[in-house]
Write a structure and sequence with these properties.
Elements: H1 2-12, E1 25-31, E2 33-37, E3 43-48, E4 50-55, E5 58-69, H2 86-90, E6 92-95, E7 100-103, H3 105-119, H4 125-136, H5 146-149, E8 160-164, H6 178-189, E9 202-204, E10 211-213, H7 257-272, E11 277-280, E12 283-289, H8 296-307, E13 335-344, E14 347-357, H9 358-371, H10 383-388, H11 404-414, H12 420-432, H13 446-458, H14 476-495, H15 502-512, H16 514-530, H17 534-551, H18 560-586
Parallel strand pairs: 2-8
Antiparallel strand pairs: 1-5, 2-3, 4-5, 6-7, 9-10, 11-12, 12-13, 13-14
Amino acid sequence: MLRELIEYYDCIISQPESDFIPDGFTRVPNVAYKIVLTHDGKLKTILPNTYTETFGKKQKEIGYDEIFPFRYSVPSIASETIECRGKYLFGLEWDKKNEKFVISEKAYEENKKTNTEFLHDLSSPVIDAYRLFLENWNPAEETENPILLSVGKNFDSAKYIIVVEDSEAKEMALHEDSVVKAKWENFWQNRFAFQKEADEVKGQCAVSGEIAPIARIHNNLSGIAGGLATGVNLVCFKTSAFWSYGKQGSYNSSVSTAVMEKYTKVFNYLTSSKKHKRMLDDMTLLFWANTREKESPYLDEFIFELWDVEPDLESTVLEIGKGKTKEWTPNENIEFCIVGIKPNSSRLAIKLFEKDNFGHMMARIGEHQRDLRLSEDDKQLSLWGILRTLKSPKSDNDTIPPDLSAKLLTAILHGTPYPEYLLQTIVRRAKIDKDDKKNKFYAISSTRARILKACLVRSNYYKGDEYMLDSTKQTVAFRCGRLFAVLEKIQTDALGEINATIKDKFFTSACSTPDLVFARLIKLAQPHLAKLDKGSEIYYDKLLQEILSEIGVFPKALSLQKQGDFILGYYQQKQKLYEKRIAEGEE
């Protein structure tokens, strides 16, 4: 997986319209304030650095995301090159309890030392103004500064960019200054040359194969649902129990510092990108295409096929596996990668990793969607829609196995049978859930019926079109389900709305042990038939005889798969009877 992330890193820096952050830089979110300095280094004012975003009926001012030199984000007092935090820039912190500023002299001195050294040989209007500011600012004299007090309680959490008067555009800010960026890029490219030879641990990188300095500690990874706010690690050896061959810490992984920084950077890019990330239950799913061309069409098609979200394409979507020709023609040999991740303490657990060429992957997904269809008019089902229907609508505490999401997606991508839990749960929910017409909930819904059909097709239970109502090859279990639907319809047509139908009382038994139930149900149907008009009585009697003639002897018990078959027969027959009633009403 690390090798694929590195390959993607090399691809994405060449992609047109890529919003990937260059090596050596970090995206800092929500930078909401702009410090304006005079040319002689004095604080002139603080202005907003925001845009307006609408949330429902409300509008909110949001700070811009800014690109700064790489942030090391260590927990101790340590300044970054080109600082954005008020504590370091002004040497002050906001005391919320007493609503006043307190001095943080050490933080200010750290920032002054770090940035004075970095900027000492550079010159531009904003650099010169900032250098003078660092030389002359005295935190002890600024605790009552009205400009800073205007920020107030937001001071500690706020982030800032620095500009000089008469050049207040964001593009002229210190972190965007071309001279600053050029020096930082040069420093970043040569940073390992500044390391002391004695401090290095060199070895062969397990990913690149090159002899290079090995990373002792791997950077934190963020953006994973359920992970620590401070970040988590993918590679870490925190206790001596994991050390071996005389190597300590992450030297055991033999991943070079250069590779470590690349894979962590591109990983954090993926987790921060909406077009590369989706949630599947409690698993974070990341995906990418290893292409140096435009990547978004591949991502859009993948999302569209599994999440049923309209893609953002000028042309219509290519639907590989459905035989439709579209304006956009992909390179089907492009490598496409998917990784599913869950947090485990301070580490990440890789639950799923798939790599295949795009054409193969989309053909398998197309096959999955075809297996879920009961008719050509059926729309595709999203993954979250499948998982959602496994839960009871009346219980917030209903859970599914934590590894089901990964197993289901793996089955889809490999074209293999779905997890047996999927069939077990749909059958169980169909038998125990109760219809709620008021809230438009039905225990045997279209979604559940389609999942049943797909499970039985994938497990080779159905050899052809046995699951179709118009097939002459229907199984006995399927016909038993049809029979139950007809008997239920006869009862409701004869008696109208009643408190409990035969479905409420006998469906579970009929589905599991038909032999114990159906003789009684057929007998109960006779007085109901007598109450119908002559035309309906003849129609239902013929339908019953047709189904019964193909059943012969009722099975004593039905296996799990046959119960699914029973439910599918019940669903399709009920839909057919409902359609007939609508048609007769229209006539």
